[in-house]
Amino acid sequence: MRVPHVGSKVRRSREICLRYATFSALLSIGVWVVALTGCIPRPRVPEDRFQRAQQLVDIGTEFLRRRELREARKSFELASDLAPVAAAVDGRGCIALLEGRYMEAEELFREAYAMDRDYDEALANLGLVKELQGEINEARDMYLEFLENHPDSARVRNNLAALEYDRGTGTIVTVEALEKAITLSDQAVIRDNLAMLSRQ
User: What does the pLDDT look like over 88-125, one tens digit per residue?
Assistant: First the structure.
């Protein structure tokens, strides 16, 4: 997460949730915010409501970064009330994920993706939910599908490497994947993952 768009498309770039995975410690990391891009379908909703919904997504994102989930939830829900914005639904899914409500998170990520098939960041988030639920093959397929369209995503490359490591795919494959990820974005979590593999 391609629904036909009514009217012209407006490109938006928003930040919502997700974080890097670490080997065998997926839940110990905290939130890492990723840039999300999507096209907003424009059924008969006034432009000012779309603009306000986008502002509320930005506000919700800031609350999410600070782990103020209650305030983030209010912002994302209000944004959804104002306009059909996939990023707002995805944001609500991120909150459900962080609160351990995986079934609800999965439903919300699927809803965001169904609202806007160009908003495939929800697919990457869905992959993480599947991984946390132990559905490793589905998670891997979603990560790979996402990377087909976004080969420059360090976060998803890292999460795929961690998944492959936990599956026992092999250290060499995992190291190569992490080296690509760190080339894209020099994040502490990726460096830590590489260091952990080097010690083994």
Answer: 999 999 999 999 999 999 999 999 999 988 888 888 89
In a domain, 62, yes or no: yes
Note the pLDDT of residue 170: 67
Q: How many structural domains are present in the chain?
A: 1
Name which residue leads in pLDDT, 69 or 153.
69
Q: Is the residue at 122 inside a domain?
A: yes
Residue 125: give its domain's CATH number.
1.25.40.10
* Model pTM above 0.85: no
Q: At what angle do helices 102-115 and 86-98 cross, to 10 degrees?
A: 170
Contact residues for 68 (Cβ-Cβ < 8 A; gap 6+): none
Task: Tell me the two tokens of residue 53.
Answer: 């919904």
> How far is CA 135 from each of CA 21, 64, 139, 162, rounded to the nearest angstrom?
15, 26, 6, 14
